[in-house]
UniProtKB/TrEMBL annotation:
Gene name of this polypeptide: ylbJ
Keywords for this protein: Membrane, Transmembrane, Transmembrane helix
Protein name: Sporulation integral membrane protein YlbJ
InterPro entries linked to this entry: Gate_dom, Spore_IM_YlbJ
Ranges for domain Nucleoside transporter/FeoB GTPase Gate: 43-135
């Protein structure tokens, strides 16, 4: 039997096994699914939707082309990508996963990036948002606000290093036309404005049509993201129930012993490989020193989890951008973030007065007040835009 047939048999077996496990453990599956849905409709959807819609409009009106011309002298030497990548990088940091992939895919469709440039760009423009690291991880999970600066510094510095390293990706296969560097010693506002004006004139859609398409495309992407979050929440729970997590942790414990790492962090690592939030929660509860737990949390944030990577893969599948370079970049960032966390532990945590405290449950929400409005109004925002999406979809496809 050929290799392709074996692959088909393996995929079918895994899917049947997962289906049977869900049927045999309906209560656990329902709880995991409900947890994933709650994260999506209270936090992910309302926090990402505005960025997605605004980004679509900025690209359509040519503002990204304007920023691209100005940022070309910076982005080309550092990352070997067009200046428009600076906009993608900034939006990726501000809004978190998987905004960078969404915008990179959009620019590739607009022919503003070559396939190699898109693979470089997507490798370092997908990262955790400040809201997630400061509010969710540092305060909500670790109950230690002082960790926010340390985690964010290690995360974004490792992200920068990955971008610099990935500039060498595809250099040998890149064509002469793709490798041509446009030399702009100083930003030219006149040329930038000309690019903006040219892009706006090429787009014949009225503003109402552009806004409607932006809402439709953004909500469709977020629906796919929600499906992945729920699926991997259930998958992680099922793997724990059937004993896969314990078996994998036993294998990893031998490796952890060699490198003098706490064996209690093996299960959190397994959980973090699949889902970033669950992995950080398990890490915070592990019986290990705070430094070891923060290093593990930093690795999980850099690797991003297979759930986030599956979201990115689904977005990139609409283009000719390959997923494998992105996957390699996530492994690189995971290790770089862990090393940087160890190096920055003393200057950014210990020297700033950080201490290992176990906060009381009543104190666990300290620092979350600025984000309480988002958490409380998130479901209402989600429901409103889902209703708007249904109406726009009906207007576009159902009305005659």
């Amino acid at each position: 039997m050929g290799r392709e047939k074996w692959n088909t048999l393996l995929i079918a077996f895994l899917l049947l096994t997962l289906t049977a496990s869900i049927i045999l453990h309906p209560k656990a599956s329902l709880e995991a699914s409900r947890g994933g849905l709650e994260v999506w409709w209270t936090i992910v959807f309302p926090s990402l939707l505005p960025f997605f819609i605004i980004s679509e409009l900025l690209i359509g009106f040519g503002v990204v082309r304007f920023a691209g011309v100005l940022l070309e002298p910076v982005m080309r030497p550092l990352f070997k990508v067009p200046g428009s990548g600076g906009f993608v990088w900034a939006m990726g940091i501000a809004s978190g996963f998987p905004a960078g992939a969404k915008l990179t895919s959009r620019l590739r469709k607009e022919k503003q990036l070559t396939s190699i440039e898109a693979e470089r760009l997507v490798s370092f423009t997908n990262c955790s948002s400040p809201l997630f690291m400061f509010a969710a991880v540092s305060v909500g999970i670790f109950k230690n606000p002082a960790l926010g600066i340390l985690l964010a510094s290690a995360h974004y510095l490792s992200n920068l290093l990955v971008g610099i390293l990935m500039r060498f990706h595809g250099s040998q296969t890149e064509s002469k036309e793709e490798a041509r560097v446009k030399k702009l010693p100083f930003p030219s506002f006149s040329e930038a404005f000309s690019a903006l004006h040219e892009t706006r004139l090429k787009n014949k859609k009225p503003i109402g049509k552009m806004l409607g398409d932006a809402v439709l495309g953004s909500v469709q992407t977020l629906l796919v993201i929600g499906g992945f979050i729920i699926l991997f929440s259930v998958l992680t729970k099922i793997l724990d129930i059937v004993g896969f997590s314990n078996m994998a942790a036993g294998i990893l414990s031998q490796l952890f012993t060699i490198f003098s790492l706490p064996e209690s962090l093996t299960k959190p690592l397994i959980a973090g490989i699949f889902e970033i939030t669950q992995g950080n929660m398990e890490t915070s509860k592990a019986s290990a020193g705070l430094l070891s737990k923060v290093i593990m949390a930093s690795f999980i944030l850099g690797f991003s989890g297979l759930s986030v990577q599956a979201q990115v893969a689904s977005i990139l599948a609409e283009t000719d951008i390959r997923f494998f370079p992105f996957f390699i970049a996530r492994i690189m960032q995971g290790f770089l973030a862990a090393i940087l966390t160890w190096l920055l532990w003393k200057p950014l945590y210990v020297n700033r007065g950080g201490v290992s405290l176990t906060y009381a449950p009543s104190q666990g929400t300290e620092g979350l007040e600025p984000f309480s409005l988002l958490f409380s109004s998130g479901p209402l925002i989600t429901l409103f835009f889902l209703g708007l999406y249904i109406w726009l979809y009906w207007r576009k496809h159902g009305a005659y």
